[in-house]
């Protein structure tokens, strides 16, 4: 089957999902365009900062579009391209986009609060504490996996010591993005340019940073870049949203959208044939399609991490409730497009049913870079630098968001009930700098093992988080007199899938212990995290299901709170 046909099928399905299903959800749950949003009401200049629809979309899209939509579909292609394609389309429309939209919707309707604190209102404080602890542990996995990916992408030297110019140039461009974003944020804050001027300035800055970074590459090893990335994460976690995170997401958006458009145009012009079978088999390389496919493809179908972005940061930027559908549902649809394009591009590069050698990032960036060279005549060295920067931006724009969310989850975990004074211990853990440092230290400890050791556990935890969020959102919708039955099937499927995957992970750790290959810093940490995630998930689900079985909903509780 041709790559163009597959891409068109996916795009048509996603458009129907956005304009039909998402619009029905919006009408079913109800929005009030005239009601001031939390960003408008609070507007503290730190976490709450109202922004235009396009700016919030840029933040949501760049934050959720991490390594997942590239890495997941490429790995899952070992089962054939058809299972991966079907899961991305069905999962994206009825699972992932619904979850993102519901989490954003619930947060905006409840003062911009995170999913964890919402659970306290509709489930109870015990459920809240358990969920927040689960979220914090999950953020450690994300930080570990994505930071290691970025550090290895920026590594300017091969195993033989040879200089890798594309990697060094991508690192240089990223450093420029970190610095220029601050000045761009100050420009937006104090000069308040129009959307058109902001767009022009952003594009010009992007071009200049690409040119300077390619001209002056920075060579350093992966360990050095790991330290740099963690230092950046600390700054991104404690600085006001408008000063670093918002402008950097806006500037990164041009790279990500440009990369997607380049891949789409390349597929449209060349219409490549997929050199992979549609279906290989249920078991491949001693891995079963169920549950591996559903935890491998996370961000391209459904990702619990997205809900943390929707309720943790994006909800605090929404300036009008009309923006919730394009931001919450629309950004996810756009991400699915990237996942499908990644699948098409890589399967087209396959030979005799086998994928090219290299990491998913390397395979994807090499393939798309060839489009730039063959179609647009961009020099190979330049196209390689640009695409390396693009794929690293995918991970970096997600990990800086999750570091901030991890810090906030830890602070919320130790926040006392309303009306109570903080104890010395609570004051310590709710301190912004302390909470950030503890979160980054936990992520760094897991990062040492390498992303390949963390990725399977990350995928399972990510999807389990989506099951918990969908369950919590179902409770919120029922408690406020809204229809929530459309969440029941997704939350059940995701819970069964991910619990199965986590139990399999524990079994593999057991086999490592029996065979004598058990490593404490690798398998030991994974075992502790896996067991903790399972226990916490079971407890959260128990409390949520008990609330769902309550026959008496609390009508319009969110409206009462707003008053």
Describe this structure in words.
The chain is an all-alpha fold. The protein has a single domain, classed as Amino acid/polyamine transporter I (Up-down Bundle), CATH 1.20.1740.10. It contains 22 helices and two strands. It has helices spanning 3-29, 38-42, 53-64, 68-76, 81-109, 115-122, 125-154, 165-191, 195-215, 222-238, 245-270, 289-296, 304-312, 324-348, 360-376, 380-413, 424-429, 432-447, 451-479, 488-515, 520-548, 557-562, and strands at residues 283-284, 287-288. It has a two-stranded antiparallel sheet. The longest helix is centred in the C-terminal third of the chain and has 34 residues, at 380-413.
Which strand order spans the largest sheet, edge to edge or round the barrel? 1-2
Q: Can you identify the CATH superfamily?
A: Amino acid/polyamine transporter I
In percent terms, what proportion of residues is strand?
A: under 5%
Rg, nearest Å: 22 Å
SSE order, as H and E? Answer: HHHHHHHHHHHEEHHHHHHHHHHH
Query: Which range best describes the helical content: under 10%, 10-25%, 25-40%, 40-55%, 55-70% or over 70%?
Result: over 70%
Structural class: mainly alpha
Q: What's the helix count?
A: 22
Tally the structural domains: 1
Fill in the keyword field for this structure.
563 residues, mainly alpha, 74% helix, disordered C terminus
Give the helix/strand layout:
Elements: H1 3-29, H2 38-42, H3 53-64, H4 68-76, H5 81-109, H6 115-122, H7 125-154, H8 165-191, H9 195-215, H10 222-238, H11 245-270, E1 283-284, E2 287-288, H12 289-296, H13 304-312, H14 324-348, H15 360-376, H16 380-413, H17 424-429, H18 432-447, H19 451-479, H20 488-515, H21 520-548, H22 557-562
Antiparallel strand pairs: 1-2
